[in-house]
């Protein structure tokens, strides 16, 4: 019983910026990795960025130097700061979190997706 609520998507001009947020609530014991994925029509879902509980990050080559992922563990929130946006960044962005239960089992949860459209 975990809910993820995403916000911050929208329409932006090339070169502009957006900040996505994803807040987790519900039956949360401990959150491990938090990540952002995206999927465009006719394209495979791809990992955009991920961050571990300890703060280690990983980025897709296509967004390195432009996007920054961060998290606020106290607020169960993950952010994606997107700068220098390009039309090819247009996609539905989904947040994903991995929850660790007290007995050690892991479960992943997905947000509903938020549309990001970058115009040229």
Strand content: over 45%
Number of helices: 0
Query: Mind summarizing the main beta sheet?
Result: 7 strands, mixed
Poorly predicted runs: none
- Secondary structure: helix percent: under 10%
What overall form do the CA principal axes indicate?
Answer: elongated
Element string (H = helix, E = strand): EEEEEEEEEEE
Taking all Cα atoms into account, the compactness measure Rg is: 14 Å
Distance between the termini: 40 Å
The helix/strand class is mainly beta
Number of strands: 11
As an assembly, this protein is single chain
Average predicted local confidence, pLDDT: 96
Topology:
Blueprint: E1 2-7, E2 10-13, E3 18-26, E4 30-39, E5 46-51, E6 57-59, E7 67-72, E8 77-82, E9 91-100, E10 106-110, E11 114-119
Parallel strand pairs: 2-11
Antiparallel strand pairs: 1-3, 3-8, 4-5, 4-9, 5-6, 7-8, 9-10, 9-11
Outline of the structure:
By secondary structure, the protein is mostly beta strands. It has strands at 2-7, 10-13, 18-26, 30-39, 46-51, 57-59, 67-72, 77-82, 91-100, 106-110, 114-119. Strands 2, 4, 5, 6, 9, 10 and 11 form a seven-stranded mixed sheet that branches. It has a four-stranded antiparallel sheet with strand order 1-3-8-7, with no helix packed on it.
Report on the architecture of this protein.
The chain is an all-beta fold and 120 residues long. 0% of the residues lie in helices and 59% in strands. It is built from no helices and eleven strands. Strands 2, 4, 5, 6, 9, 10 and 11 form a seven-stranded mixed β-sheet that branches. A hairpin with a 6-residue loop joins strand 4 and strand 5. The radius of gyration is 14 Å and the shape is elongated. The relative contact order is 0.32. The model has no long low-confidence stretch (mean pLDDT 96).
């Amino acid at each position: 019983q975990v809910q993820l609520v995403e916000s911050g998507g929208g329409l932006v001009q090339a070169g502009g910026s957006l900040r996505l947020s994803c807040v987790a609530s519900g039956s949360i014991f401990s959150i491990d990795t938090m990540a952002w994925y995206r999927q465009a029509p006719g394209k495979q879902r791809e990992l955009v960025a991920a961050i571990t509980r300890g703060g280690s990050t990983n980025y897709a080559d296509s967004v390195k130097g432009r996007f920054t992922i961060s998290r606020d563990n106290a607020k169960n929130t993950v952010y994606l700061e997107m700068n220098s946006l390009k039309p090819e960044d247009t996609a539905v962005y989904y947040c994903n979190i991995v929850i660790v239960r007290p007995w050690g089992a892991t479960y992943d949860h997905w947000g509903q997706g938020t549309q990001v459209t970058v115009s040229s």
